[in-house]
Design goal:
The structure is a single chain. The protein is α+β, with helices and mostly antiparallel strands. About 20% of the residues lie in helices and about 25% in strands. It is built from 6 helices and 13 strands. Bound molecules: uracil. Uracil binds near residues 186 and 188.
Length: about 240
């Protein structure tokens, strides 16, 4: 990647702002000032500004608590999207959700501009498990647990991969579901063929990373480098 593009992305500057920073001698590559904006740099180069490394900020990874009524898309003409909730902070980033939640669902949505990373965590072969807290309109049963374990066949004939269903002891309307794939309306359709409706669906974790309990609906924070690493490890990237 060209140095001016790298600096623009890392520091959220326009290309011309990045170029003038480089020309003023504000950017160092591998320990030396570099004033050439068209220098090619790679992951192996150490790029610093004011003594701070820029390598960690090459991509953005955010944990968003999606509220109800917001759509999981980058942009939409009529509806508020998950990216709308953060974009004033990242005006020059092409953020998108790595995986979708229905408009009525709430919880953890991962936003990033790292396409390769998103592809890896969503790829069917190594799909990172996702955990949901679900409220049903009828009590869950042991038969449902077994059907989830075996793999539920949807109304259109597709058989889902085995999934885990845990019934909350003091209230069988409340269940935890772990999915290993992402099919449109999957949980609602799985319960639908078993005769139960979903009142509420909330994603609590993506792989080993749990939605921060300190976040309110609509709030977000950056994933820590450790959390990004845990997600990479959970799909053996
Ligand atoms: N399954 C659904 O039915 N909806 C979601 O939002 C996520 C999983």
């Amino acid at each position: 990647m060209r140095l001016d593009k790298y600096v623009a992305q890392a520091l959220q500057l326009s290309r011309s702002e990045a170029r003038s920073k480089i020309l003023r001698g504000g950017i160092w590559v591998n320990g030396q000032v570099c004033k050439k904006a068209d220098t090619n740099v790679t992951d192996k180069d150490e790029i610093t500004s004011g003594g701070e490394s820029l390598s960690q900020t090459q991509f953005v990874y955010l944990m968003l608590y999606k509220p109800e009524g917001v759509v999981s898309a980058s942009n939409d003409k009529r509806q508020v999207t998950v990216v709308d909730l953060v974009k004033s902070h990242f005006p020059r980033r092409n953020l998108f959700p790595a995986g979708r939640l229905d408009k009525t669902s709430t919880g953890f949505v991962l936003l990033t501009d790292d396409g390769a990373f998103a592809h890896q965590i969503l790829a069917p072969r190594r799909h990172v498990p996702k955990t949901y807290q679900v409220e049903l309109d009828t009590p869950a049963t042991q038969q449902m647990v077994e059907a989830f374990e075996k793999g539920v066949t949807l109304a259109d004939g597709q058989t889902m991969k085995p999934a885990q269903l845990v019934i909350q002891q003091d209230d069988p309307h409340q269940v935890e579901v772990v999915l290993h794939q992402g099919v449109y309306h999957q949980i609602k359709r799985m319960f639908g063929v078993l005769g139960a409706g979903v009142n509420r669906l909330h994603r609590t974790a993506i792989g080993p990373v749990e939605l921060d309990t300190g976040l309110q609906p609509g709030e977000w924070r950056a994933l820590t480098p450790q959390e990004v690493e845990q997600l990479r490890e959970s799909c053996q990237m």
